[in-house]
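Researcher: Good morning. I'm working through a list of sequences from a screen, and I'd like to move beyond sequence-only analysis. For each chain I'm collecting a predicted structure so we can compare shapes side by side. This is the next one on the list. No need for commentary yet; just the structure.
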Amino acid sequence: MAKNKKLVIVGLGETSDIAFEYFTHDSDYEVVAFAASAEFVKQPVHNGLPLVAIEGLASTYPPATHSVYVAVSYVKLNRIRTMLFNKVKSLGYTCANYVSSRAFVWHNVVMGENIFIFENNVIQHKAVLGDNIILWSGNHIGHQTVIEDNVYISSHCVISGYCRIGSNSFLGVNSTFNDNIVVARDTIVGSGTLVVRNTEPGQLVIGSPGKAATKTSYDAFNVEEELR
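Model: Good morning. Structure tokens for this chain:
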């Protein structure tokens, strides 16, 4: 595959190493550098490529010629990935998407930026994916379902048609969602949960059928405060 686009990966953990592997071997992006917040830049090289501070990224790898992928997991219920995504967008970057060549994405699916879709995902007719979403391996996203911004969907989740998954939510492995379910923002869905009714913001939902185990406020993870 021809490498005709330049990419900087933001992040230094396992998620960024996986992103490096997938972008390198299954995309038209050439990864040219890694970036992190200045306090985490302890050495000049990562994975054999230059490592630079986000704060000076635009002067070395300008947004006119380079894209960025923010490769961070669900830590703090996706708030760290959200913060870094907003930060690079404020610098003028377009964030790249990775869609596995082994995923099935119907032609009228709508996608935002900074999306990572692993192998064996099925995304059906008129589904909508917002910004900054990770879909690990083997998920089913039903027709006309909406996945809002900053969501992390782990493996083998089945989301039926006409659902809405609220921003910053986390869906555990093998969780299942009936048609027309609305998952509120900041919901954590436990592994193997069957969701048969709508959730409220900040709930942990577990069991089959799913029931709210707790309600937790994530206001402490305010993105604007973390950007200061």
